[in-house]
Amino acid sequence: MTLRGDAEVDVLIVGGGPVGLTARALLDRWGVRTLLVERHGELSPFPRSRLVNTRSMEIFRGLGLADRITASAFAPRFGRIRFRDTLFGPDFATAAMVGVDAPIPESPVFGALTSQDRLEPVLLAASDAQTRFGVELVGLAEEADAVVASLVDHRHGTRSRVRARHVLAADGANSTVRELLGIGTTGPGAIAEVSTVVFDADLGDWCVDQPAGFYFTAHGGFLPLYPEGGWAWTDPTPEDTGSADWADLVSRALGPTAGVRPEVLRVQHWTVRAFVADRFRHGRILLAGDAAHTVPPAGGMGMNAGLGDVHNLCWKLAGVLHGWAAPSLLDTYEPERRPVASRTLDQAVANTRLMFQAQSRRQDQLRAGKAASDAVELPWSDRYFAQLGLVLGVVYDSTAVLGENGAGPDDSAPGTDYTPTPQPGHRMPHLWLTPERSTLDAVGEWFTLLTADPAHWEPHTDGPWPLRVEPLPKELTEQCSLGLHGALLIRPDGHIAARWPDGSPGDSALHHALGTVTGRPPR
User: Fold this and answer.
1) Which residue stretches of 376-483 are H helix?
2) Which of 374, 385, 398, 301 is nearest to 344 (CA)?
3) What residues does 91 pair with on adjacent strands?
4) CA distance 511 to 460
5) CA distances, 185 to each of 145, 345, 363, 423 (Å)
6) How far apart are CA 25 and CA 125, in angstroms?
7) CB atoms within 10 A of CB 138
8) Residue 100 to residue 70: CA distance in whole angstroms
9) Fewer Cβ close by (within 10 Å): the C or N end of the chain?
10) In the structure, what pLDDT confidence band is assigned to residue 263 with cuts at 50, 70 and 90?
11) How far apart are CA 84 and CA 78, in angstroms?
């Protein structure tokens, strides 16, 4: 096998799924040189993750991708889960996916139901940064100022090395990087073996009249894959997969009233895992997405949590690489994102229990002799699986957040519902600055100072940090808990870094805040 010479990049991204591809697009916007390697020879042909939640769509809006993703997604009315005895039976329970089925006032966007094999090409096209498919990372060596990665190109039979100032590992639940580093995990681990069968069947007319993103039945789960057609069936993996007649299994699950013979296109066997990595960082190497935390699919939170990871991390990497942040800024990644991962895992496990609780109530109902058409009282509120607080209500507590008067941020954990608040550590609340422009649209590859009195703050905006002053309409100051001279300092990831309710307490206040958040005080 031929050995090629070393290449050098700022960040080596390992893994070409949605998390790695989003990191590639974000870092490209910051002008960071990256190389992404993916051991598979192409993008995933399987639908896999399907729910892009509201917060993730806000990230994609910032990258200019939201419209393209929505264009190939299902209509909002499919943002619903239906519980049935059989696919063609009546609902005995149903629930909307809040933030997906319709707009919500808390965001300028709403989520989308789209298959991963439709999402990934959009993310790949979002950047021209170098990407190598069929290339596997097989070794890592840390040096004082870089990481040397050993790669195998399975297409060309060559070996090469890459020197990167940092490595971002988004290489999935079976992460090679995590294993090479010896980082353990906490949680149940492998909890189920599942098979997904992708098939074609003429179910379009029926689905249009009873739309849903997921049909949970006693014979497995059914998922429409694309607006123009295509289905998937999921069920526990049978013991003998080699001799399984998958078309027959899907036909039986559809039931005798279906009147169709499915055409099986692909079958994938996978393991449902539940864990959080014990560490998210090892020197210059950082874990994100399923490499850092893997959760059961109920509620569709796994991919979205990974997107939140890289949205948090990439601006910090850019700051360190461009010199306006100290390396210590990367120390804030784990304390900000690992608690989110733990809460996401807890919520996904709770979601799973709620789904099976609904089925259990149905079985009790039928045993009691009630009519099959009777509804089942859902074990949750109309807030689908209590997610909105976790999706939009994440609060960061680290040295990259300044509380008022020297205090730490509001550390209240997100609960069932989301209440917008302009407190440090929280995501900046969505407010319309103009009929088409949100406060979240003011955030980008810079810190944003949001104030109704730009003239009061402009003299203090010099320094090494990327910073823009955004005028705040005076009629919105009360909703931001600001006086006419007050200001919010918003990080590039949209979370509030600092707040001055009544104006700058001194000429150096803004410089002090930026220096503290980035670890790079002004000289």
Assistant:
1) 388-392, 454-457
2) 301
3) 84
4) 7
5) 27, 13, 36, 32
6) 9
7) 13
8) 11
9) C
10) very high
11) 16
* Residue 490: both structure tokens together: 């918003």
Name the one residue in this structure whose structure tokens are 């290449």: 7
Judged against a pLDDT cut of 60, whether residue 407 lies above it is answered with no
> What gap in Å lies between CA 407 and CA 203, rounded to an integer?
58
At 314, the amino acid letter reads C
DSSP state of 298: T
Residues, the chain, total? 523
Secondary structure of 41-105 in HEC code, one letter for each residue: CCCCCCCCCCEECHHHHHHHHHCCCHHHHHHCCCCHHHCEEEEECCCCCCEEEEEECCCCCCCCC
For residue 334, give the H/E element and its range: helix 333-367
Q: Where are the beta strands (DSSP E) in 283-415?
A: 285-287, 293-294
Phi-psi region of 503 (alpha: psi -120 to 50; beta: other; left: phi over 0): left
DSSP symbol at 426 = B
pLDDT at 279: 97
Distance CA 163, CA 157 (A): 20
Q: How far is 148 from 171, CA to CA, in rounded Å?
A: 17
Torsion of the alpha carbons at 35, 39, 45 and 49, rounded to the nearest 10: -70
Beta strand pairing call for 34-38 and 185-200: unpaired
Closest residue by Cα to residue 513 from 445, 468, 440, 447: 447
Outline where 211-332 has alpha helix (H).
246-254, 302-322
3-class DSSP assignment, residue 256 = coil
Residue 463 in contact with residue 522, Cβ under 8 Å?
A: yes
Average pLDDT over residues 143-159: 95
At 401 the pLDDT is: 97
Cβ proximity of 140 and 147 under 8 Å: yes
Contacts for 119 with CB less than 8 Å, ≥ 6 apart:
18, 49, 52, 69
How does pLDDT run across 292-349, given as a tens digit for each residue? Answer: 999 988 777 889 999 999 999 999 999 999 999 999 999 999 999 999 999 988 888 8
CB 73 within 8 A of CB 114: yes
Query: Which amino acid, residue 415?
Result: G
Both tokens assigned to 346: 């807890």
Please report, in angstroms and rounded to a whole number, the separation of the first and last CA atoms in the chain.
Answer: 51
Q: Cα separations (Å) of 473 from 107, 129, 156, 227, 432?
A: 18, 38, 58, 41, 10
Paired residues of 451 in beta bridges: 471, 487
- Residue 286 φ/ψ region, left for φ over 0, alpha for ψ in the -120 to 50 degree band, beta for the rest: beta
